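This part of the workshop introduces the protein records we will be handling. To make this concrete, we reproduce a full record directly below.
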Amino acid sequence: MNKTVYCTVVSLITLCLIGNVAFAQKPLKVGDVLANPGEKKSGFIKVPKGMDGPEIQLPITIINGVKDGPVLALTAGIHGYEYPPILALQRLLKQVEPSQISGAVIMVHVVNMPSFLKRTTYYNPYDWKNQNRVFPGKINGSMTERIAFQISKEVIDQCDYLIDMHCGDGNEDLMPYLYYTKTGDEALDYKTRELAINFGFKVIIHESVKLNETSASHCANSALLKGKPALTIESGKLGKTDEEDIIRITRGTYNTLKHLNMIPGSPELLFEPVWVKSVTYIRSEHIGIFYPLSHSGRHVQKGELLGYLTDFFGNILQKAIAPHDGIIMYIIATPPMSEGEPMVKIGSF
């Protein structure tokens, strides 16, 4: 081998080695799961026991690609009666392979395991707190706060982007939409807005929030507070497991993977987004029995009767009247109603 050929071979080998280093993905550990590059592994995040309940195990999966890229966190089951996101992650777990992706995906299959197992809406049955109102949580707090603390430490702190997946709870007739939260940080807001558009839902609620420890009590807002683009998406209703809701979530997740260049291709955007500039809640002023007279996704006019609340003897206590024109984002579709709870959520375009 002459000197020129030798130098050429050495240069090619050096470039290959540099290329491998440049695209090498790191091992990723979440809870008791350690996934090396090219591995898909499942296990648990353990939430320690406290005065109000036992140790809880939250099922997770890490899909760690071979090539370098962002870490995308997908959380489901923050409200345990919201099933389509949980089923969508099961489907994605089987479909997405480490060889296909750059970067890594962290899936939390069920965040609020006590609520899931007891089939409760909104609240953890051990401390009766709403899991999506206590982030970033407390290591020595109640069970809901301990779960939030572990998710914050193990998932939010280690991801670059987060999609918190929800749907209408067991009592909510809800239309599909997602939240884009504007923080005032231009760079973060641009990335979050692009994430929202490319997820591919037609209706986007656009809200501006001055983030602090109080306003960041939601999972997605807690990630935004740490400078990480994050969305809350909603697809499904009334404790159902409709296929169209699961497909909508899986398609949006693939759109996100494409948008972040974690898999090849361009997002499949079926709609021009429609932006909801504000939302209004009609809240119950009493406990009683609610009778809905409308449904989600319906355009309503100011002054329209959308439902009414009675006492337990059938006497009308309150009428739910549309305060302005808009669209019903969700309406409670089951009879039980507590004082102060939303009966109807109306969006304005």
Notes: The longest strand covers residues 39-47.
